[in-house]
Write a structure and sequence with these properties.
Layout (H helix, E strand, L loop, with lengths): L1 E4 L5 H12 L3 H12 L4 E7 L2 E10 L10 E9 L8 H16 L3 E5 L2 H4 L5 E2 L5 E3 L9 E5 L10 E3 L3 H4 L16
Parallel strand pairs: 4-5, 7-9
Antiparallel strand pairs: 1-2, 2-3, 3-4, 5-8, 6-8
Helix pairs in contact: 1-2
Length: 182
């Protein structure tokens, strides 16, 4: 297995992988829209030969007191069903962390399964005074990880995701009204 940054020829295959894993087109549309609008996003592929078997996407989140490249949100992440539970997701997360550290990112937030993401050092974001913009999100599934162990304090407040996560993207690619973007 090889991990690399995505490239233009990968877009269709990534979209199909997201549709397969998530059972519909929403996540693929979100990635497509963010890719165009957010140049600081990080998108990585896991390959088995020339075939994309996994994908991970990180995009800036807004937290008062942090710049767009200091705080990133993980997601979506998709691994082809034939390759799940074989370390592909773990390799994608670790490669993403390595790349984000080099770019100066301080923290990563995720909405996900607590049992899975705890293995990477994610803890409930509420422990650091962070809240998700969506009040209905359970405390244990909104998590944060510091990429800088010497970071004395994570700024507190509401974490705001890109508008592509907030409102569905229509079939024509138009976005409804949402949070400010990149």
């Amino acid at each position: 297995m090889k991990i690399r940054k995505e490239s233009d020829p990968d877009f269709d295959e990534i979209r199909r992988l997201n549709e397969l894993v998530f059972g519909g087109p929403l996540e693929g549309k979100i990635v497509d829209a963010l890719r165009v609008r957010c140049p600081e996003a990080l998108s990585l592929d896991a390959l088995d030969g020339d075939r994309i078997i996994g994908h991970i996407f990180f995009s800036a989140v807004a937290i008062e007191g942090m710049t767009a490249t200091e705080a990133m949100g993980l997601g979506p992440m998709s691994v082809h069903p034939d390759f799940q539970r074989k370390g592909v997701g773990k390799a994608l997360v670790q490669a993403g962390f390595d790349s984000l550290r080099k770019s100066g990112c301080a923290i990563v937030v995720v909405l996900g399964h607590p049992e899975y993401y705890a293995q990477f050092g994610f803890v409930p974001a509420s422990r650091h005074g962070l809240r998700c913009q969506w009040e209905s999100v359970p405390d244990d599934v909104f998590m944060v990880k510091s990429l800088k162990p010497h970071l004395a304090r994570i700024p507190q407040g509401i974490v705001r995701y890109q508008k592509e996560f907030e409102t569905p993207i229509k079939d024509d690619g138009e976005q409804g009204k949402g949070a400010d973007g990149c």
